Automatic annotation (TrEMBL):
This is OGFR factor. Residues 5-164 form the Opioid growth factor receptor (OGFr) conserved domain. Signal peptide: none annotated. GO terms for molecular function: opioid growth factor receptor activity. One of its GO terms (cellular component) is membrane. It holds the Pfam family OGFr_N. Belongs to the opioid growth factor receptor family. It comes from the Eukaryota.
Length: 167
């Protein structure tokens, strides 16, 4: 079977790659070697996107030194957004839910606050946000996005009345 770097329990673009089973996910999560490789692959992909994993315990990320040139690539080629969505989903499968939160918040900050990734904004809002497994953390991120989205009246990713009362 073809090897997948960030395997999921769903079909992707490669029709020959079969989805993971729950048993396989559990076996992966129990294997230190597999999880070490997974983390190495994650760091490699972050580097490709111009992002650096600051803290392996929390999943906190920041811009890497090469961020300007890598963000140009992210803005130019939208197929990267599919890969990022896949990575985010796989983080959830592998038990790295906190990593999901930090990476999504990073993209929300870069697209909505810093405005460095205008061509990633729709994917961050439509897809990245909704890969976050924790309902509570996802709500926090939707609220964060709403706070920074302009114009706020055009924000469609959460009910305005609940967003205004949030916290």
């Amino acid at each position: 079977f073809p090897f997948r770097l960030f395997p999921l329990r769903e079909h992707g673009m490669n029709w020959r790659a079969r989805p993971l089973t729950c048993q396989e996910i559990q076996a992966f999560r129990k294997s230190k070697e597999v999880m070490d490789r997974f983390l190495r692959a994650y760091k490699l992909m972050l580097g490709f996107y111009g992002i650096h994993l600051v803290n392996e315990e929390t999943g906190e990320v920041e811009r890497a030194n090469n961020w300007r040139e890598r963000f140009e690539n992210l803005n130019r080629f939208s197929h990267n957004n599919l890969r990022i969505t896949r990575i985010l989903k796989c983080l959830g499968e592998m038990g790295y839910e906190d990593y999901q939160v930090h990476l999504v918040k990073f993209f929300l900050t870069e697209t909505l606050v810093e405005e460095t990734l205008p061509n990633v904004k729709r994917s961050a809002l439509d897809y990245f946000l909704f890969t976050v497994r924790s309902k509570e953390k996802r709500r926090e991120l939707v609220h964060y996005a709403w706070q920074h989205f302009r114009p706020q009246s055009s924000f469609v990713w959460g009910p305005r009345d609940k967003l205004q009362k949030y916290r």
